Batch of 3 targets.
Target 1
Amino acid sequence: MTVHQRDWQAFVTPGKDGAVHMDLAVDGITCAACMGDIERGLKRLPGIRTARVNLTSQRLAVDWVEDQTGADEIVAELTRLGYKAHPFDPASQKDRQDRTGKELLRSLAVAGFAGMNIMLLSVSVWSGNATGIEPETRDFFHWLSALIALPTVAYAGRPFFRSAFRALASGRLNMDVPIMIGVVLAVALSVVQTVQHQHHAYFESAVMLLFFLLVGRYLDHNMRGRTRSFAENIAALKAEVAARILPDGSVREVPLSKVSAGDLVLVSAGERVPVDGVVETGMSEIDQSLVTGESILVAVDRGQRVYAGTLNGSGSLQVRVEAASGATLLDEVNRLLEAASQAKSKYVRIADRAARLYAPLVHGAAGLTFLGWLLAGMEWQPALVIAISVLIITCPCALGLAVPAVQVVASGQLFRRGVLLNTGDAIERMADIDTILFDKTGTLTLADPELCSPFDLQDPVVRLAGRLALASRHPLSTALVRATGAITPLPEVKEVPGAGLETMVEGATLRLGSPQFCGASAEQIEDALREVPGASLLAIRFGDGPVQLLPFRQSLRPDARAVIDRLKAEGYALEIVSGDTEPSVAGCAEALGIAHWQAGMKPAQKIVRLEDLQQSGHKVLMVGDGLNDAPALAGAHVSLSPVSAVHLSQAAADAVFLGDRLQPVADALRLSKRARAAIEQNLWISGLYNVIAVPVAVAGFVTPLMAAVAMSASSLIVTANALKLRWGEGRPETGAGPAHLPAEKAEG
């Protein structure tokens, strides 16, 4: 069989300041301690500038000086540390994560089923020893337990054994090493005692130990798996090819990498713009929510700028390229996202910090116990039984369940209030928040525009315009259809790209579209905007009659003012950071009583504001929905996004909230504080359990079976404490949860 060596140099890309960059997917990362091992280990290599591990996606980003260290040396160092590297590919990484989850679930099912059967056999032996069981019957039950336990441990223990062997091979200890030692010793000693026809065997201890650990490991993996890869969402927005217009006027489709600044490209109706550039020919409407966060389509014609990733409407455009692949605004958003998500991934969970101290303490306690009893004159076999009891009774089950158990209960309570968690540790981070940044459009306001000035909807011209609007998918046309209740379209409608619609009705022309298209004067437009600042205007003209200007604006969420007042009363500092126009943002801030706001902000500017607050010691919650919010959502201490948000923003956010109300934001903050308190209580319970149980086990008063029972009891106590989150919560407020969404929309 031929072994093919991978050319890692092929995956290296140019970085900043003369450095090079490489992204790797790393197998075997299970906790924050693994992140520290990798980052510290790689930084010992010469020339390494940064090494950042994303705990959720298991992605390693490395920047280094190429002439000091090679890509192969970086991968070799990872191997020496006990981790296997692959070229980072979002699709294949997702497949690997799915396989890991399925393996954990299968192992959990096998351990649970086997554990119940072995416990029944152990109870029979225990009661038989008390009443005088026949030795042959007892040995039969022990061998039957061995027949179940040995293959179960071999199968269900694989996730822990692999991790432990990798750690030992690289000269490290992790939480899985004492688990492996305890399980293997318990099984081996049980086999020896069964061969020697002794009264006790401890197969159930090993299997139940695995079962409870697998519960915690699977819950933790499941919560982390909820987070989606940013790269997958960015890829959906990026065009792979562009239609380049050659000097002779012909059009040729070429890879985006072959397009340079100064080229002319054709963007057909309905396509995503592949480059940043300026329109040379054509008229259309562009969805520029990537840049502004505003969902209203923007009319563009000659001389106006368009951006890669934005969606072209009904017209065809010829665009002169200013920035192509790798240098567009969309690429900048991607870079901001990566930098922000890497920074956030350095948040170390409470349980991970506690777990770093666990392995050396457990090994030390068990080893000293064994040596101490030997020195006291005890035979090696009973001394080993006591040492195994110490290993099992100090097992990290309660510690491993402390966080996931609360996460699962809290996420269920949040779901009842319309909040869906993407990341498990969002609960811990949300409890730290003191400052909240809100986007405006689609966040404080509803996503769909509404007619915001009283008009006679019985006016026959307005009703005709509603019927004409049925021919367009423009958000303002859709809003007019809703307002007029039109259901019958007009025939023979002509669409003028980037301008509007027109048709003939009773020999006269009916027009619906931009004020300029319908012949509105500059004075009329100014008067309408003065009356309704920040509005989007839709014009109607029938024949030679006057132009009617209908102002549309996204209305505030129905409970926005009440929620903002409550958050201010609870001591949170509030700001609006929006890409929308100044009049629109100012009006929203005034209506909600928010003193600090900024308008016209680009993605990088939102990141700068976020970093300024964080450097001042503030813990910031970002609430936003647009593509321009995605980097800030990823970089904030914690983030929320409405369900109406674009997919990239939902992926960048730590949680998504449902419905038309803002109440889920306040609910999430309140519940997170209670959940964090429960996590801290669980960790204290775990610590107190060990303080009491370990000395008793060291003194020899605990058998491995009793240790397994005590370990199980501690896990159940931790789980019960997490369930108090459910018991302490009343019914969610009406309209606050997913079951009430239709009522919300009707009320809103």
Target 2
Amino acid sequence: MIDSNSYINVRDYGAKASDFSTRVRSNAGCDLYLTEDTGDIRVGDEMLLTGACPSVVGAQLYVRRDVSSINPRPPKRRFTITDEMELVGYDGSDGDKVVYIIDICPELPGIIRWSRDFGTSWTDNVEIRNGECTLDHGRRLIIRDFEDLAYGCTAVFVCSAQTVCKVVSVQKNGVRLSATATVSADCTLSYSDSAAINNAVSAAISEGKGVYFPGGRYNLTDSVRIKSARNISIIGESSASVILDYSLGDAGDTVDIKAGHCFKVESCENVLLRGFTMVGNSSFKERAHEGCIKTRGVEPTKVYGFYYRLTAALQVTNVSKMRVEDCHARGMSGEAFYSKGDHRTSVSEPERYQISLTYDNCSVEDCARNAFNNNDLGENTTVTGCRIRDVGGCAWEGSNRFVRFTGNYVRNAGPVAIGNLRSRDPEYERLGTAQHIVADNVFEDNVPYGRAAITVGAGASQVIIKGNIFVNMNSNGIRVVGTSQYSDLPSERVIISGNSMDMTAVYSAPKERYGICFDSSYVTVSDNHIYSRGTSPDKTFTAIKTSILSVGSMVHSNTLSGAGVGIEVSAPTGEVGTVVGNKSFYRREQAFGLPVTPPIPRRLSHRFKGWTLRWKKGGESTVAFCDPDSRLFTLVEPFELSEGDGFTLEPPSKTLAVRDNIITDSLDGLALDDRCLSKTVVTDNIIS
């Protein structure tokens, strides 16, 4: 029972939790909206008006990354368009919310391509004439001269016919609103509870009370904002009866993701959030729209669809301690539960940052993007006892420190993605990042997004993956990524132990997949059972894959069966990029700086000193060192270097051990060529 002296009831502040809506007629230039049904609309009510005031509510520009080896221009992520471009002509006649994506690339001068279905289809080869392009419905794109045109860029324009307004008066033939119509149209008017709820929250914070939501379906057009509060509880009557519905999406400016989260908690201490189901606007089936848009103006990992029709359950920013219990997300377009903020460094500690964040008995189902996400270096995140199913992004993604992902159930969802830090900041090698324990979870069936059910990526170190159960997996199991993007630190120091991995394809035809794959340094893979059930080996399945780049690593005491290959060791190849004299070169980067081998090493590492470059064109060289800051490889002796020269990079001695494994019922127990065998200690394995 909620004590009314300790909690403020949102109904007392005007939250209606009503599903009432009515059709109204707007007249351009008028604030009176005609309708025969005003229901129980009252003066001061907050309403969502759809169709009367269409406009371009946000525009952003992305610029292509320069991955030149020498003097690259500073990177830009995205910024608000001011006078670089302009979209004119949107009148709302073809949709309440329309998002245009415009690709401009120097490889195709004088033309653009555009999409309004988040890159599912494109209208190509649209000419730029006198600085203008014609789009659909008579709309025009005006392109002015600006510096970034020469590098390649992608623009996004968000058009919306939704407006949040207040009731000024109620009349016999309609309602007068605080919004003046800009077009004459048939429109929709419905309740919004956001202002009433936020008034209740503000009162609770000022009075030192909690906030209580009785059962009902509350319609949101803005986030419920809890800011600068101490020791506050936000409680729903029950997660089954309290629904926060943000399915219409943000009605205002989506630029910089200002709204779209059901709850936004910022600069608080000791927060409890409990007992809510939150509903968004985008299901698992719509994951392609909300994910990375395959642009060619900029790199294909830069523009995400969910930025521009965001719905999410929770955003936490610089909250010192918080618990989230019995909260459930459905149909979210963005990261359902998301945290960001400041962090401690080796030399300083901010006044407020995350020191504890716990998700307990929560769930994320039928969502387009990530379930749980920390996008910072906050500390002590725990995700426990949660259910994650039919999620089109990561089950968890985090670069923060001291994470426990334990006791959860994951099915048909993206990876538990550890690291993914796109920076080589020296600070990340002092305190470390993405230290994780991933233990005692169940993973079932399929990974529809990403590389593997558990992926240890850029920047991660000190990771323990133990005691997990994989059931009927027709996707990759565990991946430790040693390659690096242009801006990454490679992952390292991972223990993978005691996992039971059933890699049998039961529900669909078997796909190429592995149980465990790693090419990072200091990785121990031990005491795992990795197998496929069946009367004959599954040639599409490899139990363990590794490489000779995995310095200080060991594969031992595993039981492997039913695989096409039991253990495979490879020698990855790389290519020369820009050449500097006859003793130095940069590695060849992929377009947009995507991952390649060899990795650019950490500062506190071997830096490839004394390693052998075995050239594809013949001959070999010894590496003097690789500078981890400039990314320059330097040879001991001169060599005739040319851009595009292929090579393998081999350690100076044996650094990988494969021992005491039992491999049965496989087509090929151990797959190592002569180069790999000379760099690997292979002893006491039983192969039958």
Target 3
Amino acid sequence: MPKITSAKKVLLLGSGALKIGEAGEFDYSGSQAIQALREEGMEIILVNPNIATNQTSKADGVKIYFQPVLPEFVERIIEKERPDAIMLAWGGQTALNCGSQLFHSGVLEKYNVEILGTSVETIDKTEDRKAFNAELTKIGVHFPKSHACETKEEALEALKDIKLPCLVRAAFTLGGGGSGFAYNQEQFEILINNAFAYSPQILVEESLKGWKEIEYEVVRDRNDNCITVCNMENFDPLGVHTGESIVIAPSQTLSDEEYQMLRSVATKTIRHLGVVGECNIQYALDPYSQEYRVIEVNARLSRSSALASKATGYPLAYVAAKLALGYTLDELKNSVTGCTSAFFEPSLDYVALKIPRWDLNKFRKVSQTISSEMKSVGEIMALGRTFEEVLQKGLRMLQIGAQGISHHPYAFEDIKDILENPTPLRAFAIYRAMQEGMSVDEIAELTKIDKWFLEKIERIKKTEDNISSQEMNIDLMKKAKKEGFSDNVIGKLIGKKEIEVRKMRKEWGVIPVAKKIDTLAGEFPAQTNYLYMTYHGIENDG
């Protein structure tokens, strides 16, 4: 690739029609890509039928085709518009699959269309499980024991080696479509039939259910400069799809040795594969040892990329687009400071928590259990200083009637069953189990959730017990606010109205502190509000 591409007209593939488990979350990535291309004065041809996105809003220099992101439609657009180049990594799996098919069918070569960013050869290595495992073997990186199968007979033969229980996954899909855990032969045959309906290749893998699930967002340029911008940890253990899980950034339960080990594996893997731009690498980590497995590499922007960007302030999609054009990390500016380079790894003194939202009650005969196939329809992100604070804030932000982890409209008939078989109400069930006297060790045994997270939830319970049993004082008020209790909930616990609690704490001076924030305004005016929010965990209480 030349230093800067000579392309003047670029075709950008969007994420397609809005569905559960895909499309909507890539609006962020596509919008940032458009911004990066417009800055270079390029003519942009966007293919995306989703009208309900910021990406498809009218903008100068952008011509939009509201057509399906499928090879037969995109080929006709290429024939008409004759773009110089195409970008695949900003529209999720839909765009990646479409671009790969256009490449292999000879369409891109026929019309002399250059691929910007990660090559299709690299994409194929990450998407085809046989090829992916072969590449990881070359560099000594561990991956789950698995078999890539293209027929039902091959899958049944693979089961003889993998053994039950096992995980069945459909290749080339987003949102875990067609995946699930099989515990007996009957479940296995149902799952493989379902998976083949999604994809021509399925994966039969060893079950690592109960291991920690960790992700790293990695950026690499054409000169092999490589950084890990953000790492994230799932609250739920492996077995629950990342899109279905509560996720915290940065990771909270890893030792420095574990963090650095996984970071080193990430950079080694991405460099070997030759990704140019941004990608996501997902791990399973044994909670009782340093044994790990690389689950997958997404050679594109993912839904986690949007979370990582908003959590850290590092514009991953924007930077990835610039790298695809041929820039290097040291040539791009840090958008936060406006003066240093983009070749840096953010360091956070706060945490960001993502909580999914489900609307399963709108569907008939749907299972309430959440697992390896994504069912959530949206998510929120909460910022704060502690896990306790962002968990309570996040649960309120879901707008499902909860005012925190303890105050909600839900009842539970069988707590142990919900703990063992996760549902959208699992966090509330954990708290209720603690109220009923269940210990952290007992809950950890049933859920396989790391005790660190459970102990933080237990701390919320102890604070609530203190609020209910003691006379409110300034120290207890400070503790309650730092752990995410709203004025409304505090009022319910002490028998006062919300407005009375607010008046009380303001008289005591228990208010969000924004000292020194004005000193930043002169240097980084565009970032003042962002820093105020993240550094101080501000919440609008009314």
